Structure formats: structure tokens, C-alpha cells
Structure prediction request, 945 residues.
Amino acid sequence: MDLSIALLLVQDGITNGAIYALLALALVLVFTVTRVIFVPAGEFVTYGTLTLAALQLNKPPGTVGLLLGLAAVAGTMEVYAAVRDRALRRLPRRLALYVAVPVVIAALVWVVAPAGLALPLQIACTVAIVTALGPLLYRVAYQPLAEASVLVLLIVSVAAHLTMIGLGLWFFGAEGSRTPPFTGESLHVGDMSFSGQSLLVLLFSIAVIGALWVFFDRTLYGKALRATALNRTGARLVGISPNLAGSLTFMLAAMLGAFSGVLIGPITTIYYDSGFLISLKGFVGAIIGGLSSYPLAAAGSLLVGLLESFSSFWASAFKEVIVFTLIIPVLLWRSLTTHHHEEEE
Amino acid sequence: MSAAGSPGGHHASVARAWRAAALFALLVVPVLAPPFWITLLNYIGLYSIVALGLVLLTGVAGQTSFGQAAFVGVGAYTTAFLSINYPAISPWLNLIVGVGLTALIALFLGFITLRMKGHYLPLATIAWGISLFYVFGNLEFLGGHTGLTGISVLNLFGLPLRNERYFFYLIWAIALASLWMTQNLLDSRPGRAIRALKGALEMAEAFGVDAVRLKIIVFVYAAVLACVSGWLYAHLQRFVNPTPFGIGQGIEYLFMAVVGGAGSVWGAVVGATLITLLKQVLQDALPHLLGREGNFEVAVFGVLMIVLLQRTREGVWPWLARLLPGPVPAPVSAPPPGTALARRERPHHDAPLLAVDRARKQFGGLVAVNDLSFELRAGEILGLIGPNGAGKSTMFNLISGALPLTRGEIRFVGAPIGDLQPFDIARRGIGRTFQHVRLVPTMSVLDNVALGAYLRGHAGVLRAALRLDRAEESRARAEAAAQITRVGLEGSLHAAAGSLALGQQRIVEIARALAADPMLLLLDEPAAGLRYREKQELAALLRNLRKEGMTILLVEHDMDFVMGLTDRLVVMDFGEKLAEGLPAQIQNNPVVLEAYLGAV
Prediction:
């Protein structure tokens, strides 16, 4: 290996690592606020890529159907709950949130898709659809179990992951898709060249991380989410609804997934079932951060990206094995530094 | 419900008839059923063995694994590799090698994850399941993605099992043996501790259970069952490739346990049957319905799982169990004279038992207990009282070992105990109850109380699973029954602890503490939440225990309850001792009246 190959591998690793970092942030966010281990994160990535790919063929993407289906289920659940609790007054707001908004987004995309949109508009449509799936998934699958143990929520997550894979196969078919790069330009500094695509991914990831920081540190909703993450009961006592916090968190997580999907599309071919491995790499990053620290999770994800790109050069068949084995020293270290063993909540 | 005699006998005979009918059906099925059904039943048997491990791990112990398919793979690939490359070695020896390998891997994974919160084990097993799949698929000597063919035929007593019909008997014999062993394990000393791991872990540790060690043992047990299933699979198919050992199958095993009902060993068989049949149906129907080829059944499984968990977390088995005759509780008989559990030597009446010497506990800048000293003599009831926030519970936790001392010393029968862990303190003869009742609600009163005698027994997982622990077990049960009688709950011996009223549950907690044969009983607000009658009954019980020579330290804020019962009182306020003396003196102490009673 010479220096130019090494540089190429580093560049590759950082680009992938930046995408894993977005996912790792989503996983940490969802876990701290809702205690859900967000296994279906990867499906939001694949849905992002495949939705964009469908829009580029001027076809309405299959996720539109999923959005409508989930909205119907969520709406039914809200009506049932409102009638059962005799709380019809709250119903219009909930229906607006869980039914009207998704239906408007779905209708809009359905109408404009065949017209052939410009790339930025295609991306906007993709992000809108996939982001709207997040709160609906929370409402339908997780909210009824919000008080259950982490273990039960994890099993629900795995079930949701499988369901979304099956639906992905149905909506998008078994063929993979790759979206065209956003830019063919590259930047030359001396002998080194950086692809514009990689730089774009990196810049965008940094921008998103910055925006999240502003959201959590400077806005009321962000602070409310942080409060819920620290103490659910306490947050409810001061008037923060855990259901709203959950929906909002899933919306953010879905958006991060959609962004990752849009960014990864030009780098690798994405199939309906590619998401699991991608999100697991985000998990390895998040576990390095103990599922609680954002900066450590982001740093861990970069490490995962680098390890992956170098191991694909040296031992490409064992790439996945090497990446997942990384969690063993991390867990070992965490376990040895945990003095008294931790009790379940 | 707990009546013995003829109704129980009738019950038992119905249960025997059911068992005989089921066994007969298993024996004749391979003779009568068409080959397709035999294949299906063989797979159900193989899956049941794996799901059984998950019932114990997930349903009972509250941990989980998505990597069981990988352990199945270890069993299958070990015997495949050995039987192809070293055909002289018996496949039965390969099984031992596979089990050893599996146990080592599970020990390691358990060791690095089980000291931490429950979600690290499942995450680690996902990574392990995926990694192993790629290892199998990429190693030349394991045949890569095409796998290994030509695995030897299994011989049983010289009879080669070439035929699926013959294999049926072996698979189901092993499946039933595993069910029997797991059922035995649950009904034993380690089994009671395993059942307390989920939800009552602090309590289990206070009675001497090493929770981390036990969790690791349960994980290894589940992994070994998976490995045995893999070994059977390899010799049934006589070829292996990586596909059935991937993470997808690992998830399916967990679904089987959850759908069937992860709380009972039979849930494993029910879940394996339902998922296998459903998959068969869906794989035929869905591609027709959707007009496309693909594994669409996973989506249906996913939805099914979510709906099931939202509706009931108990799975299908409890619902089926209602149609069958329930289990008959085994009668408790007194052990032969001279074989009862050993009792420890009692201190003489009025000898110093517990000495708290300038005990101090600080939480950061807050001094919760400020250089408190008092003494407790054998045979007395001492009340530790004070208003809310006085530091009583902190003092209690310092004695029971739940919190470490900042400074000072606590001596029990002359030896310092301030630095000991809760189970060490339990071992020395201090029994305790909990302010918020910590019983295993689904376990019988008898089993809950027998858990108190955990440190007085020795039977481990293996002895329990093989039913070699019966002599010790009958002593433990007799001791538990004796303590339940001592506190006056003999009518509820076999009732589920969760079905009792709060007052009775507190009494069960006292019986459980007594089963540990303590010299000192620590009671943390035993009267909290009790009605007037229940308080009177509790006070009468404690007086009786004192008459029998028991020493009791009572932390309480109910003045009426304490006044008529205790020999002496220590009053705390703001972490300090405000007064000490006879109840009548305390009642008229102006300082106490101002700090405490004055507020009433």
C-alpha cells in the first residue's frame, strides 16, 4: 500500500463514517428519549435511497403507499383511543398530526412525481416522505408500549425492522438502486485529490450535527426532549408530553435516516435489505459512546468507517466480521469499568 | 384451591392421562404420518430445543439473545467438519466438542455484557450472529457459502439413523429430555434465584444470589441447547451451509419463544409449532397474493409480533394452559429427623449483638447520617424512628450493606460488617425485608420463602436439572413451610405471592427473612400501607418472634405501631440521634415532641 491508496482509503472511511455518525446520533437520540433501541434506523436509510431513485425515474415511490397505510392505522388508533377515553376534544389535533399531514405529503408527491423534478426538489420530497414515516411508526408500534421494558421495546424494534424489510421488498423490488452523484467535481490540493461527493457528505454531516446542537441547546423543544431523556416522569409532571417527545424524536431520527439514505445513494448500491448492516455500523459507533454520548458516538462511527475501508482493502471477505468484532474490546472495557452491576429500570 | 386429598388426586390422574396420550401420539406419529409431516415435526422439535433456551433466558431471567442461530451453527459446523475430516471419531464425541466450544463462546460473551444493563447482551449477540455468518461463508475449510456435504450418519446403539422416521424419535427424545431438565431447573434452589433475576434482583442479591454469575450460567445453558439442536440438524440433513445460522433465523427463534409464551417451557414447543406452520402457509400464499417472489412472511411475522406484544406479553401458552389440567403442587413433608437444615448458634439473651459506632453517610455535601451510635442487644425489639427525611432508611441501608459507610463502624457479633456486600451480611445472619415489597409475584408463597434459605443450600444448575437435588430440596421446602406456619400463613402455601393482600405479602417477606435463619431481623417500615387490623396482626407476630428469642430492628414512622411494640427507641432527626430510651420516656421527651410529635 502506498500513500495515495492510504489517502483514498482514509477519504472513503471518513465519508462512510460521517454517514454512520448521522445514524449513531439518531440511535443515541432515540434511546435516551424513548429507551427504544432503534433497529429499524437502517430501513429509513434504504427507504431514503430507494425513494429518491424512484423519483429520479419519475415514478411515485412505494413509500407513498406506506405513508397512507400507516396514517390510516394511526388515525384509527387515535379515534379508538379518543372514543374509549371520551376525550373527543383532543381528536382534531391528533388527526391533523397523524393523518392530515402525511396525506398532504403523499398527495403532493404523487401529483408532482411524474412531472420530473429537479434534483433538490426530488431530495426535498424524499426527505419529507421518509421523515413523515417516523412519528407514524412511533405512534403505531411503540407508543402503546411506552412503559414496557427496554427488552420488550427492543423486540418490537426488531419486529418493526423485519416488517419494513418485507414492505421494502414489496414496494421497491429485489433490484438494487444507485443514485447519480450530486457533483462530478473534485478538489485538488497539491498531489491529493478529494472527490466533491465526499466533501459534500462530510460538510453536510457536520452541518446536521451543528443544527442538532443548536436545536438541543437553544430551542424549547430541544430542551424539552433533553428533559424527557433524563427523567420521563419528571418531564410529564412539568407538562412535557412523553408521547409528543417520542413522536418528535422519531421524526428527527427518521430525518437523519433519510439524509443518510440520500447521501449514501451515490456511494453504494442500495438494496431493500441493505439497511440492517448500515444501521448496525451506526450501532457499533453508538455503543462506543455507551448509547449516551453524542461526541463519542460520532467519533466511534468515524472509527468504524475507517476500520471498514482499511479492512476491505486487506481482508475484504472479513470486512463485516472485523467491524462487528470492534464492539468486543469496547464492551470488555465498559464491563471491566462497571463496578457494581447495573439493575434494570 | 390448595386442598389436598381426593380433588388433587383426581387432578393428578387427569394430568397423567394427558401425558400418556401425548407420549403415545409421539410414538405412533412416525409410523402413520406422511413424510412431509415427519420432516415438519422434526424441524419443530429442533426449533423447540433452541426456543426452550430462550424461554429460560428471556422469559424467566429477563435477558435476551438474537444470536442463538449462530450457536446452532457452531454445533452443526463442529460436527460437520470433524465427521468429514476425522470420520473415525464418533459424532457423539463431536457433540461434546461442539458443546465445549459453545460454552466457551457463551461464557465470553456473557462475561463482557452481563454485568451491564440488559440491552448490551442482545446487541452483542446481533453482532456475533452476523459475524459468525460471514466467517462460515468465507472460510475455505468450512466450504464457504456452498457449505459442507457428506456428513456421517448418526448411529444410535449400532442402529444407523438414515431415515427421517428414525431421526424423529431421537429429536423428540432429546427435546423432551431438555424440557424435563429445564422444568426441573425452574423448580429448584437455583431456579428460584433465576426466577427472581427479572424484577427482584436486589432482593435476590440480598439473600446471597450472585446475580451476574447466574445470568451467565443461564446464557451458557441456552447456548448449549442451541448447539445440541445444531448437532442434530447436521446429522439429519447431512450437509450444512451458512444460511440457516444467520441473524434472520436468530430473530425467528426469539419470536418462537415470545409467541409461544416465554414464561413456560411448553411455550417453546407451542411457539416453534406455530411459527413453523405459519411460515409454511405464508411462504406458499404470499407470493401468489402479491404476484411476486420473496420472503414476504417476515413482514407478517413482524406485524404479528408487534400486535402480540401490544395485546399480551404472555404469548399463546397461558391461553392454551387454561384448557389443560393445571399442575398439582407437590405436598410438603417433614424431612426425616436429624436431616433438617442446620441452624446457627444463637447469642445469649441480652448479649450485645449489633453496635453502630459513629456511623456517617454523606451524599456529596449532604450528611444523611451524622456520626450516629447505638447498640442492639439479643432478644430485644429496637425501634428506629424519626420524621420523614431524618435518615432512617439510609441508616437501614448502611446496616444491610446496600450503601457503603463514609466513616465510622458497624459491628455484628463483634466483627465489623461496614464494608461488606449485602450477600455477605446475609451470610453472617442478618435477615431483612423491603420497604416496597419484593416478592416474585408469579412464584408460590412456598417458593418465595424457600428463596430465603438460598444460602443454606448448595445445589447447582446441573444437579437441579438432573433432579439430584431432591434431598436438599425437600429440606429447604420443609424449612420454608415451617417458617410460613410460624408466621401464620400456612393456608396460602401454594398461592401465587402476587395474589395476596399487601399485609400478607409483608408477612411473607418476614417468613422469607426467617428462612435464612437470621440472628437479627431488619424490618424497613413493615407497617406502611397496612390497615388497622393488619397492623395488629403484624405486631402480634413480632411479639411472638421476640418471645422465641429473635432480635429485631424496626425502622418505622408509625408512632402508634412502634410505641406498644418496642423495648427501646432511637429517635433520629436530620441525620442525628435526638433521643434514646424507653417508649414511655420518648413519648414525654420535650425535644422529641417538638421535632416529631409536635408536628402531628
Chain A touches chain B through 50 residues (CB under 8 Å). The longest helix of chain A spans residues 3-34. The beta strands of chain A are 186-189, 192-195.
